[in-house]
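Schema walk-through. Below, the input block comes first and the output block second. Nothing else is stored per chain. Lengths vary across the set, and this one has 310 residues.
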Amino acid sequence: MSPTAVGALVGLVGGVGLCLVLWRVAARRITLSERIAPYLRERPRTSRLLAEAAQHTPFPTAERLLAPLVHDAGRVLERLGSSSVSIRRRLQLLGGSTTHDQFRTEQLMWGAVGLAVGTLLALTAGVVRGAPFVPLLVGVILCGLGGAVARDQLLTSQARRRQERMAQELPDVAELLALAVSAGEGPIGALERVSRTTHGELTGEVRRTLAEARSGTPLAVALENMAARTDEAAIARFAEGVSVALERGTPLADVLRAQAQDARESARRELMETGGKKELGMMVPVVFLVLPVTVVFAIFPGVAVLEVGL
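--- output ---
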């Protein structure tokens, strides 16, 4: 492909893209529901001091102008990939302050980076190798989609690793809570002591539960909310067990010790299952690498002696 043709192709693609953007911006109309939404918004029932501060970009005007386009692109991504319900659930499991709209914006940015990389590779392949246009266009589109999918998979991986760290921290936290309650501390006092003396993902959830309890939520309800914010069965059983013990007056120290023992048994079972899977994986290098080398070292001297004798 000649440089003139490449330049014409790049100009055509850029012009078509600019026309599409301008057409979409001009075609965007504010709906009736969007016009009356500010006047019908429900007033918060709690103090605004407890609400998290909204995070804005350094360019608020650009944020307001691009927000409708980001919403439209988010709906397209929802049809192509994960649903909004799944994303909100994984963001909740991640425990960060990232909202659904912020994640969609990040996903679009990753897709734009993928498009840029794919375009650069396509131009390089077209100029150097003279590759046809259609495969290059398909490669660029796949690179853009790959960037968006990579951000979605990264969110899944981060949420899973956080849940695993919380499950690993559960036995120690339960033992410390049992010791504090046995020493005479109340439930909230024990949680405060553990939150001050430990660090980790589960400690962050304990601090969040304490914040809900201090804001007026009953401790049992705050613990149930903690159980709803996790996918780990051991942590959910722990929070629900403590909540039931508080409601029914069961000795809390005994419940905490039992929860810690159950968590350690569950971790031991998972470790044994992981060891069994790794054992099968370790057979691959033994069979295909170590065993052939051993056979070669055992047979080669005899083959060499036979060749010398002949």
